């Protein structure tokens, strides 16, 4: 039985998220702050960590920094589940090596499927199509609660450290790379192999 640790000081979140994972057959443990979470992670060596960011004693960013700097813990996949919707924080955490950043309130299917991907149980997240009423905004769009500018870039012109502005999908409902992903040389080569010619990145 795979083990998941949820680190969040909100008992409503730990309760609801924990029950969802338990129904799927996972063992769930919880901690209410980053310091307590790190101790639990070290003793239990879970298959996945779900981490909030705003917590007492030690916040989630510092807890993730410590986790990813520990040679015994750094390979444990981490998903951030947070109400903080700051793109610079998303990019910082992506560079630290988190698997996904999901904003609160979240879609249950989104969290579950991204978690299964992080644990190696599926290759891609199968995300239900979101139908939003009203007309689309043009090139300035709301992502993770922040209005950002997009620019369309040829894959040949991509450079490491550019940041994806939207989810990149290779099928209508399959996410290949999530928004906020920091571009690397290996990602550029993968996109070229898949024949993807253009992506939308966050404008400077």
Explain this structure.
Helix 2 runs parallel beside helix 3 (60-69). The protein folds into two domains: 3-121, 3-Layer(aba) Sandwich (Rossmann fold); 140-202, Molybdopterin biosynthesis moea protein, domain 2 (Alpha-Beta Complex), CATH 3.90.105. Residues 127-148 have low confidence and may be disordered. It has helices at 11-23, 34-44, 60-69, 87-96, 108-118, 185-193, and strands at 3-7, 27-31, 48-51, 78-82, 100-103, 125-126, 140-143, 146-154, 168-171, 174-177, 198-202. The N and C termini lie far apart (45 Å). With 204 residues, it is of the alpha/beta class. Helix 3 (60-69) links the parallel strand 3 and strand 4. It has a five-stranded parallel sheet, with helices on both faces.
What would you call the quaternary organization? single chain
* Residue windows where pLDDT falls under 50 for at least 5 positions: 127-148
CATH architecture of the largest domain: 3-Layer(aba) Sandwich
- The domain tally reads 2
Helix content: 25-40%
Question: Helical element count?
Answer: 6
The secondary structure category is: alpha/beta
Q: What is the CATH class designation of the largest domain? A: Alpha Beta
Using only C-alpha atoms, the radius of gyration works out to 17 Å
Strand content: 25-35%
